Amino acid sequence: MELLGKEQIQQVTGDGISWQDAITLSAKPLLDKKLITTEYINSVISICLEKGPYMNIGPQIVLAHARPLSSTKQACISLLKTTQEVSFIDNKHPARLWFFLATPDNTSHVAIMQQLASVLLNADKVQQLLAAVTIDDLANVFSGE
């Protein structure tokens, strides 16, 4: 299973956008495919406002997610890379890789998380993601090319 294909990846400068914008943009491919609804995106943003930056899972990396919602069609993930840092919640948590994970239940996302962890625990792959210039470059990190 390919974790992230080109249709699930976007790249923007990040100039002048808020962390809420980054989360919303990161979810756009899933919203466009009708895999999630705006309810899920709003839930993620509400959790961040309530609980703080705990979704900042590593240097430059945010894994935006919320509790399962029945409106989510299937477990899915997308990625927004910003070429400039966007402060997540506060200036102590700059990020450029904005993953958005959605799930309809408590278990269907486990395989996605395992695959994502194998990429994000590899420092070379994280550096490749941060250095990527094109969406093809980003997709290639996940396809193993």
From TrEMBL:
Query: Which domain of life does the protein's organism represent?
Result: Bacteria
GO CC annotation, single: cytoplasm
Which segments does the entry list as coiled coil? none
The record ties this protein, via Gene3D superfamilies, to:
Mannitol-specific EII, Chain A
List the InterPro entries. Ascorbate-PTS_EIIA_comp (IPR051351), PTrfase/Anion_transptr (IPR016152), PTS_EIIA_type-2_dom (IPR002178)
The biological processes this protein is annotated with in GO are:
phosphoenolpyruvate-dependent sugar phosphotransferase system
Boundaries of each PTS EIIA type-2 domain copy? 2-145
Record keywords, A-Z: Cytoplasm, Kinase, Phosphoprotein, Phosphotransferase system, Transferase, Transport
**Gene Ontology MF terms in the entry:** kinase activity
Q: Does the keyword Transferase apply?
A: yes
- The residues forming the signal peptide are none
What does the UniProt function comment say about this protein?
A: The phosphoenolpyruvate-dependent sugar phosphotransferase system (sugar PTS), a major carbohydrate active transport system, catalyzes the phosphorylation of incoming sugar substrates concomitantly with their translocation across the cell membrane. The enzyme II UlaABC PTS system is involved in ascorbate transport.
| Protein name, per record | Ascorbate-specific PTS system EIIA component
